Amino acid sequence: MYSSLPHRDGKGERETIMTTKSYIKDYPRPQLVRDGWISLNGEWRFGFDDADEGERLGWPQQFGGQLGIQVPFTYETKASGIGSEEHHAQVWYSRTVDIPADAEGKRALLHFQAVDYRAKLWVNGHYVGQHEGGYAAFKFDITPWLAFGEENTLTVKVEDSLDATQPRGKQRWVQDSFECFYVQTTGIWQTVWMEFVEPAHLAAVKTTPDLDARTVRFEYEVAGLRAGSELRLETIVTLRGQTVKKASLVLDRPRLQLELDLVHEASGPWMQSHWSPAHPSLYDVEFILYEDGREADRTLSYFGMRKISIEKGQVLLNNVPLYQRLVLDQGYWPDTHLTPPSEEAILEDIGKLLEMGYNGVRKHMKVEDARFLYWCDVKGVLVWSEMAATFEFSDQAVEWFTREWMEVVRQQYNHPSIVAWVPFNESWGVPNILKDERQQKFTEAIYHLTKAFDPHRPVVANDGWEHTVSDILTLHDYVERGEEFLRRYAAKDDIVGNGISFNKSKYAFADGYAYRGQPVIVSEFGGIAFRSEKGWGYGSQAGSEESFLERFRSIHEAIRATDYIVGYCYTQITDVQQEVNGLLTEDRRPKVPLEKIREINLG
Questions:
Q1: Which segments constitute the Glycosyl hydrolases family 2 sugar binding domain (predicted)?
Q2: What angle do CA 517, 520, 525 make, to 5 degrees?
Q3: pLDDT tens string 499-552
Q4: 470 and 572 part of one domain
Q5: How many Å apart are CA 63 and CA 153, to the nearest integer?
Q6: Quick check: bond before 572 cis, omega within 30?
Q7: Is the per-residue pLDDT at 404 higher than 90?
Q8: Based on the domain organization, do 340 and 287 belong to the same domain?
Q9: What domain count does the chain have?
Q10: Which residues contact 397 (CB under 8 A, 6 or more apart)?
């Protein structure tokens, strides 16, 4: 890792952050980095198509655009330059881009980090393809439709809906916001960018560390394998600037794997090479692809040597019990909504949560920007990665959800900071899971599908209650006082055996399922509203800083005093629109001194 980025930390003080060798500021895909890339953020032509007649009228070939919009901010946000919160089911984008003449002979890859919900792409009036799913990244190879050395036109139509079977998370599906559901997100909401690569290039790498065996496995996917050419891939692993391992592999098919042992002396004691919140050590990796002896592709990545496991009712990190002090994070900002306004804003949020004594976040109902996960990797923040929910159950919902969830798991797999997958929350999208066998089997299928791709992380199949199969028993309980909490949780058998209900009528397990010794974590609690004239929180609003801190301390001490509970997640880090139960306001101003929150968190 290398000293790189000067930044103000959560206290407003200057710090120099240690980054990976691969770090490029604002680079949108930090797990696979190339030097040559072009950001296409900025001004695009934009228009609404409420009658859905743009395709018939020839907009893919010639779209003037009545408005301008600042990508990647959606039209609902102030930062977009539009700021209209009305729902529009069809919107269009267009811009020109100069393609350098010297890129001819290479493949031009156009990347979208996130577009909500269905994106259709035309290049110079030619239809290229489409992608469904509002939270997963995707790309198109647009080489056949480009004119090199000339100006080219990109046109994107985005189709969104208020359909409750569409994975949407906290986005409202009615005209007005209500309860904990907020203004919808329509269109491009993360970075758009291009890169030019040789026909033979590294398309993807799945990186799996094995702490106990002291090995790391790379599973490579290589594009452009051609008959008659010889491809060789060199992999170089370094730690703190010192070479640990170097290996070379001849490629005779598009998918291969390589396992390297990491027994080494140069980098110091083995334990100092592990990734943890206390010591977020990261290995740098360089992949160099040679075709017929000539360098064709060079990419940079990184990984963390760490192990998440479960044993005897405990979650273990690197074979040591881990007490998780998480905070719920919905990732909204006042003027940009789901889109981080800048990389500095991401760092500010992470800095503040660490300053408050939390060691992780439950990223709630949102698949976050990859740069957020990068900084969690670098700074040692534990992350529970959660899928955006649907709100009705149907065959269509099952298909949409399953496809997008597996895209997300594949894309986020390499991040060491992710320590749990959370595909479902509070029976959203599976409202009759208590007794409906189809809905139960759906959550089981997602659990097992996730474990088939990633057997190394715990999966929480239905966070909060009505669990089916799940590696952790998570509970949501907004009881206000510690004394009441201690009474409710005095008998573990009552909690895990469905003897006590949550949210009035919810129980720990769905019918037909039972406790199997899983770790118990209270993954939502608190939600105390304070210093707000409107909006809502859980329970009664605190009237003063003293009463807020007394209630905050009371419930935290009660959870820590319950010996079979091995972690918690407080609701929540910031206010979000009409929801005012954050420790910070929407614009990130602390409601109480952060050092007092830290003192209570650290007990």
A1: 39-159
A2: 160
A3: 998 888 899 999 999 999 999 999 999 999 887 767 777 877 888 999 999 999
A4: yes
A5: 10
A6: yes
A7: yes
A8: no
A9: 3
A10: 165, 166, 390, 429
Place of tokens 């720990």: 508
Least confident of 13-27, 307-321, 405-419: 13-27
**DSSP of 364-384, one letter per residue?**
TT----HHHHHHHHHHT-EEE
Kindly state whether residues 315 and 218 are assigned to the same domain: no
- Cα 370 to Cα 331: distance, rounded to the nearest angstrom: 13
Using alpha carbons, list the distances in angstroms from residue 418 to 1, 145, 324, 338, 520: 20, 38, 13, 20, 19
Taking each continuous run of H as one helix and of E as one strand, the counts in the chain are 8, 31
Helix 395-412 to helix 437-453 angle, to the nearest 10 degrees? 20
Does residue 345 share a domain with residue 376? yes
* Claim to verify: residue 349 and residue 321 sit in the same structural domain: yes
Please tell me the distance from the alpha carbon of residue 17 to that of residue 343, in angstroms, as a whole number.
13
What does the block give as tokens for 152? 């080219």
Q: What Cα–Cα distance (Å) separates residue 91 from each residue in 16, 49, 52, 239? A: 42, 6, 9, 47
pLDDT level of residue 603 (50, 70, 90 thresholds)? confident
Nearest to 180 by CA among 581, 602, 595: 581
Question: Tokens standing for 584?
Answer: 């910070």
Is 24 within the bounds of a domain? Answer: no
Q: What is the pLDDT of residues 324-379, one digit of tens each?
A: 999 999 999 999 999 999 999 999 999 999 999 999 999 999 999 999 999 999 99
pTM of structure: 0.95
C-beta neighbour count of 283 within 10 angstroms: 26
Could you list the residue range(s) of the whole structural domain that residue 221 is in?
Answer: 199-303
On whether residue 205 sits in a domain, the answer given is yes
**C-alpha to C-alpha distances, 456 to 50, 211, 377, nearest whole angstrom:** 46, 11, 17
CATH of the domain at 166: 2.60.120.260
Helix (H) or strand (E) holding 219: strand 215-223
Per-residue pLDDT tens over the stretch 91-116: 999 999 999 999 999 999 999 999 99
Sheet architecture: strand order including 231-239: 242-251, 231-239, 283-291, 294-303
Residue where a domain stops, chosen among 243, 278, 303: 303
Torsion from C-alpha of 174, 180, 186, 188, nearest 10 degrees? -170
Structure-derived torsion over alpha carbons of residues 472, 477, 481, 483, reported in degrees to the nearest 10:
-50
Q: Is 4 a domain residue?
A: no
Among 140, 172, 192, give the residue marking a domain's end.
192
Do residues 276 and 386 share a domain? no
CATH number at residue 272: 2.60.40.10
Q: Are residues 447 and 593 in the same domain?
A: yes
For 272-299, write each residue's pLDDT tens digit: 789 999 999 999 999 999 999 999 999 9
pLDDT digits (tens, 9 = 90+) for 468-482: 999 999 999 999 999
Question: Does the pLDDT of residue 2 top 50, yes or no?
Answer: no
Tell me, what DSSP letter sits at residue 479? -
| Helix runs in 497-533, H state only | none
In a domain, 544, yes or no: yes
